[in-house]
Amino acid sequence: MFLSYFLIYFSAWKGVKSTGKMVWVTCTLPYVILTVLLIKGLTLEGSGAGLKYLLIPDWKRVGDIEVWQGAATQILYSSGVAFGPIIYYGGARNKEDKIVTASFWIPVANSATSFYAALTVFTFVGHIGHQLGSPIEDVAKQSLSLAFVAYPGLIETMAGKNFWAIIFFLMLVILGVDTVFGFLDYTMEFLLDAFPVILTKMRKEIFCIYVCFGCFICSLMFVTDSGYYVFNLFDAYSCGISLYFCLIMECIVIGWIFGIEKLAIIAERTTGENIPKVV
Fold this sequence. Notes:
The protein is mainly alpha-helical and 279 residues long. The chain has helices at residues 2-12, 16-42, 47-55, 65-79, 84-91, 99-132, 136-140, 144-156, 161-194, 198-201, 204-219, 227-237, 241-271. It has 13 helices and no strands. It is globular and about 60 Å long.
């Protein structure tokens, strides 16, 4: 965990300037690793069963509210649309960047990435089910243990296990770091905007050390003996109803209180784009 925050610090210590450069590595490398794992996964016995489970819908569950809740949580969490960092990075854009165009392509890229990752995951899920002799639905429900118990156990049985273990866990670390430094950058800028006196007392790089250290101390609760239960609490309640509430409030404030007509005028003046009539 200390190594992770070490990497996060040097990704965010200069704000948008450093994160903008780091994101070229942290965003592109997982695609390379996913492609390598997908190619390997397609060669494994039982991968077809995993892909069949992924791609063929179970129409009986269409009316299950938990399915739709899980889908909504996944979209909100992966896109970051209800979190603070995406709003902050929107304010840090270049003047020539197109907001409306980005607002269309970001959800498309997010959904395409999630689907691509799912293809990779379920080739391995199918193989795990084949190895264990268990139904795919039982293997897919293992959540956290799927990444840290089932996958390592599978990699242990593969040829070149050390190489695949490094590739797999490198991808997990990169995805984790990529997620955290956006929030860290946003938190820093929020505190600096709220308390501008901070920059009169210390440089931004030093302030970033304090923020990283504070986050590191708070994160220690996840590595205690009860850390797994604390993690499940955060996973269940930090990305559920609270995100829905934030998104609904954003839509109400921007769409009705501020007014979509005013937003359309601002977008046209600043970027030359028109918000579609359907919005």
